Amino acid sequence: MTLRATTAGAVLAATALLGLAPQASAAPVPQPQAATAETRVAAAQAAAAPDTLATLSRFFAREGQLSAAAARPRIEGEAIPVHHLSPDFVAGKAGAPVARLEFLASKAVSSDGQQAALWTAKTEAGWQVVNIATGDDEFRYARLGAERLPGGTVFREPQIDGWYVAGANRVLPLDEDAVRAVGAGGTTLNAYRARVGAAYGDKLPGSAYAEGGVAGGYAEPGPQDSGAPVAMAAVGVALALGAAGVSALRRRRPAVA
Q1: Strand pairing partners for 118?
Q2: pTM of the entire structure?
Q3: With contact defined as beta carbons under 8 Å apart, do 193 and 89 qualify?
Q4: Per-domain residue ranges for the chain?
Q5: Which of 52, 110, 113, 144 has the fewest CB atoms lying closer than 10 Å?
Q6: Residue 109 contacts residue 59 (beta carbons within 8 Å)
Q7: ∠ CA 204-9-205 to the nearest 5 degrees?
Q8: pLDDT tens-digit profile of 13-69?
Q9: Are 119 and 130 in contact (CB under 8 A)?
Q10: Which uninterrupted H or E stretch holds 177?
């Protein structure tokens, strides 16, 4: 199942788990301006709020392996910044960085060891958890990127679910999806710009592709869909669920050492 194939299911999961009214689409969550000490504290407070912990209990109990009462979720460590491929970089705008800050992530752990990432962003109602994704991708790749290229920017290319670290005019892959895109040895920043420009340049916000898509520009997966590039309009919070959403499924790929 591709990442896009999980989108509809994740929206339904959010509706059922959180009691949200179904929506045809939701406005993308605004990106935080910077991962300052203040924003980290605000993200941490949202992640540790009683309502969030109650939702996490139900989230961790969703497969019936333990009860919600027994889940006893806890937040571990500090909130970390998570970057995604920047539409401005794809468009070739002068001086645009390869990635932009999309949200802050906090790690949640249940009593039986399940892990999840709480995606937190500043909405019109203040700092809120806007998505819960199973696993620890955000934290694992942040660590791996710091090891491979200290001081580099770790970022995700959501269209292929690939993780990279960029710095010193190089883009290095951190998982198998990224290796398939740029090779095991990585590529130059200019070569990467050319690749993503060719793949997504006609799918940016405001394009005919984005305006004809769903969920902020993502196309509906076809019966033979194998993970082809999707639109950039919802490149921020990939599922564009608005209020706190739940992504019960996420593809897993081995990291690249």
Answers
A1: 106, 132
A2: 0.73
A3: yes
A4: 4-247
A5: 113
A6: no
A7: 10
A8: 333 333 323 332 333 445 556 778 888 899 999 999 999 999 999 999 987 788 999
A9: yes
A10: helix 176-182
